[in-house]
Amino acid sequence: MIILDGQSLSLKQLKEIACHKTPIQIAPHCLDKIANIRLEIDLKASGSKAYYGINTGFGALSETKISTEDLEKLQRNLILSHAVGVGEPLSEAETRALMLLRLNTLAKGFSGVRPLILERLAALLNRNLLPQIPRKGSVGASGDLAPLAHLAMFLMKDHEGVEAFELHAKEGLALINGTQAMTAVGCLAQLEAESLSDFADQIGSLSLDVLLGSDAPMDNRIHEARPHPGQIQSAKRIKELLGSSELNESHRYCRKVQDAYSLRCMPQVHGATRDVLQYTRSVLEREINSATDNPLVFENHDILSGGNFHGQPVAFALDFLGIATAELANISERRMEQMLNPMLSSGLPAFLTPNPGLNSGMMMLQVTAAALINENKVLSHPASTDSIPTSANREDHVSMGMTSANKARTIVDNVCHVLAIELLCAAQALDLRRPLKSSSALEALHESFRQHVSFAEVDRAYGIDLAKSVQYLKAQVNA
Q1: What's the pLDDT at 256?
Q2: 354 — phi, psi (to 5°)?
Q3: d(CA 148, CA 121)
Q4: Would you state the pLDDT for residue 59?
Q5: Block mean pLDDT (10 aa), the chain, length 479
Q6: Where are the beta strands (DSSP E) in 326-372?
Q7: For this structure, is 261 an active site residue?
Q8: What is the Cα–Cα distance from 440 to 445, expressed in whole angstroms?
Q9: Local structure of 305: helix, strand or coil
Q10: Quick one: how far is CA 467 from the chain centroid?
Q11: Is-above-0.85 flag for pTM?
Q12: Phi and psi at residue 72, in whole multiples of 5°?
């Protein structure tokens, strides 16, 4: 059981709840605070003074005062009119993450909803009763309106012991005004990207070893002279992974002076990605415990309109996440070329097949990687540099953060496929280097992988091998 208090949710807990269905509970002191705040909303809603979203219309209609008897209809109309998302639905894990994040921001106590709203949302999440939420349709300010409206519409209906109910003043707006859709998708992309960054070091180290590359560029003195934290970390890991490899020792005193950049500069490239992911993690960790409503309700009875729903911080971070993670695939594909090309591979057979010519070997796997990398280059164009005014120009600058999130998700998935292809190639190359062995750590990786994909003596349906390799890598990444 994970207790939600609006303050202390971690990305690790988010993964446990979203992916592993760990149950949640709202901290009792949060419900007490929420109940007290709600009394103020009820008082303001029935008064003569206009308060945005409580007794007024929305967006460009915010100057339109709504009568007390129509306040529930106002909130219902808001949800029905805003649930206009399109495209494929969020995944189960993304949907659960979205529900969790909306619940956590409500638990902060600035939204002005009844405790009932949180209790029902928590009940749906714990029972895994999930809405279908279209992936597209949000411009990332005033929050992720369309995706969250689909959640709110689902929340209002009957569900296996969770009865239907009507929204009261401000509750519809409190449910849809926020960045939880982009942040939910972004958090899961972040977690997968971090794991892939670790596996890029492992797979890249195996590629370096089978290519008879040098471990000298991993010397800690080189990296302490240019002390970027991610670079130092990746160099240290690669050095440790290579360990006491027989392959590495077999060419210790060869005449080759320097390796290609895709081998020699792994710490600099992988490390730069690590540093970006550290930054994007910090943004997401703040956002998942933030109040992103408008207006916000405070315990001193102040109701303040602002712009915390604007997704710009998250949009920038997720664009950067996509750019940085894409580079793991770029350099991975270059290492593939080193293994597949007999002019570069230090004695490995062409396309890693024992009988090239009759067999094409892993030729086309590199082509698939090239196609995915091309897609990533297109997707790496920032969405956050664009803004299209909406709502009669009241919402005249928006973040496009949901587009950033969806792009980052696709990029991360493509990178997983590319690294899975490199792993296929590196494992094949290691078998072709026998009887020499790699380090104990890299031999363990090879042995684990070989339980899923066997050595290819002749051509076969490599598409099946690729699917198994992706499945293997995703299982490791999402464990």
Answers
A1: 82
A2: -60, -25
A3: 13
A4: 79
A5: 97 98 97 92 87 86 88 93 97 98 97 95 96 97 95 91 86 95 98 98 98 96 98 98 94 86 98 98 98 90 92 98 98 98 97 97 98 98 95 91 98 98 98 98 98 98 98 94
A6: none
A7: no
A8: 9
A9: coil
A10: 21
A11: yes
A12: -70, -40
C-alpha–C-alpha distance, residues 244 and 437, integer Å: 10
Give the per-residue pLDDT at 46: 84
Structure tokens at 447: 């042995």
Distance between terminal CA atoms of the chain? Answer: 19
Burial of 249 (0-12, 13-18, 19+ CB in 10 A): exposed
What are the structure tokens assigned to 123, written together? 């009940």
C-alpha distances (whole Å) from 169 to each of 36, 114, 459 are: 15, 10, 66
Write down the catalytic residue from 51, 52, 462, 472.
Answer: 52
- The DSSP output letter for 87 is E
The three-state DSSP-derived secondary structure of 424-478 is HHHHHHHHHCCCCCCCHHHHHHHHHHHCCCCCCCCCCCHHHHHHHHHHHHHHHHC
Instruction: Please tell me the number of Cα atoms within 13 Å of 357 on its side-chain side.
Output: 1
pLDDT of residue 392: 87
Residue type (1 letter), 7: Q
What letter represents residue 198's amino acid? D
Distance CA 140, CA 387 (A): 10
Structure tokens at 19: 């992916």
Question: Can you tell me the distance from the alpha carbon of 277 to that of 275, in angstroms, rounded to the nearest whole number?
Answer: 5
Residue with tokens 């097949």: 353
Residue 378 CB-half CA count within 13 A: 7
Secondary element (H or E) of residue 4: strand 2-4
